[in-house]
From TrEMBL, chain A:
The keyword Ion transport applies. The keyword Ion transport applies. Keywords: Ion transport, Potassium, Potassium transport, Transport. The gene is trkA_2. Pfam families: TrkA_N. This is Trk system potassium uptake protein TrkA.
TrEMBL record, chain B:
This is Trk system potassium uptake protein TrkA. It comes from Candidatus Thermoflexus japonica. Residues 1-120 form the RCK N-terminal domain. One of its GO terms (cellular component) is plasma membrane. Keywords: Ion transport, NAD, Potassium, Potassium transport, Transport. Residues 138-219 form the RCK C-terminal domain. Transmembrane segments: none annotated. InterPro entries: K_uptake_TrkA, NAD(P)-bd_dom_sf, RCK_C, RCK_C_sf, RCK_N, Trk_Ktr_HKT_K-transport. Gene3D superfamilies: NAD(P)-binding Rossmann-like Domain (3.40.50.720), Regulator of K+ conductance, C-terminal domain (3.30.70.1450). PROSITE patterns: RCK_C, RCK_N.
Length: 132, 220
């Protein structure tokens, strides 16, 4: 699969290395060059410096023809906008969005985005631990 | 009309003030408490809501579902998009208006269903172009679909258009001169109209034909 990842923080970098290891073709976008350097010199995928809400930057990252787009910057609204552009403008078949705000995650899920809320997942996991 | 404005910066503040003066019901949403305190002093507590304009619980509390229009004017395009998407898709607000900073976002916002975009960058650029004697057409308005622009320019002395009838100019099929201002006169031209230097021209054009139109009118 060709996978474009937006945001090279802890989650983005981990996902990128993991997918590359699994043999996928990975492109990572971040507005900071230093963030991308954290992937290490042996990272087999591609990197692009730029703003992920800019359609031109997404195009440079090869979003046209990508099988999946994953938006995991630290900013919920950036992730939502990039995901909408990937889905509606470029027609990427699988688009996944990380949203820290559980409520926003729920609403945009209702509105058709595939969202993952780490906050909601952690709350669920911690509640389970207490119940056990 | 009930108008909800998101973002209490300079644009949001002055916009609220003038819409209130016109007698509309206005609610300005600002998330920074310190800025909100200033806005409450200036506009009155009834017209300011302190909270996150991208948060749907804020929207429910301010009665978003009965708003006639939502106007998002924060400094971040992505925040303005999310506000308008929530208003449109979740609360069925009939009209959503977003400020954009990156002019390239106009088309994206339109395709995502936002009704109107206002590009501050383009407005400033147009004002500057008009103030400077640049040899270019001034972009007045981007029409919603297909990238068609309403442009303005002045016929330059010695340009191909100077002293020739519109019909003879070979203006591309996807460009049209719609208005001519000559001194005190303003008229809608026909193919027989002979243009003269210093005529001010309003035209609609696709981006592809703009260079040809520019060359014919301005000679550059």
């Amino acid at each position: 699969m060709r996978i474009v990842i937006l945001g090279c923080g802890r989650l983005g970098a981990y996902l990128a290395r993991r997918f590359a290891q699994d043999g996928h073709e990975v492109v990572v976008i971040d507005r900071e060059r230093e963030a991308l350097e954290a992937l290490g010199p042996d990272f087999p995928g591609e990197t692009v410096v730029g703003m992920g809400i800019d359609a031109e930057v997404l195009r440079r990252a090869g979003i046209e023809g990508a099988d999946a787009f994953i938006a995991v910057t630290g900013y919920d609204n950036t992730n939502i906008m990039a995901a909408e552009v990937a889905r509606e403008i470029f027609g990427v078949p699988r688009v996944i969005t990380r949203l820290n705000d559980p409520l926003r995650a729920e609403i945009f899920q209702e509105l058709g985005l595939k969202t993952v809320s780490p906050t909601a997942l952690a709350v669920e996991a911690i509640r389970k631990c207490l119940e056990d | 009309m009930y108008l909800i404005i998101v973002g209490g910066g300079k644009v949001g503040y002055y916009l609220s003030k003038s819409l209130l003066a016109e007698g509309h019901e206005v609610l300005l949403i600002e998330r920074n408490p310190r800025r909100a305190a200033f806005l409450i002093d200036e506009l009155g507590a009834d017209h300011v809501w302190v909270g996150d304009g991208c948060d749907s619980s804020t929207f429910a509390q301010v009665g978003m579902n009965r708003a006639d229009a939502v106007i998002a004017v924060t400094g971040d395009d992505e925040d303005n998009l999310v506000v308008c998407l929530l208003a449109k898709r979740k609360f069925n607000v009939p009209r959503t208006i977003a400020r954009i900073n990156n002019p390239r976002n106009a088309e994206i916002f339109a395709r995502l269903g936002i009704d109107v975009t206002v590009s501050t960058t383009e407005i400033i650029q147009a004002q500057i172009e008009r103030a400077l004697p640049l040899r270019s057409l001034v972009h007045l308005l981007a029409l919603r679909r297909g990238g068609i622009q309403l442009v303005e320019g002045k016929v330059a002395p010695g340009a191909p258009a100077d002293g020739r009838a519109l019909r003879e100019l070979g203006i591309p099929a996807d460009a049209l001169v719609v208005m001519v201002v000559r001194g005190d006169q303003t008229f809608i031209p026909s193919g027989e109209t002979i243009l003269r230097a210093d005529d001010e021209i309003l035209a609609v054009t696709t981006p592809q034909s703009e260079p040809v139109l520019r060359q014919l009118l301005l000679g550059a």
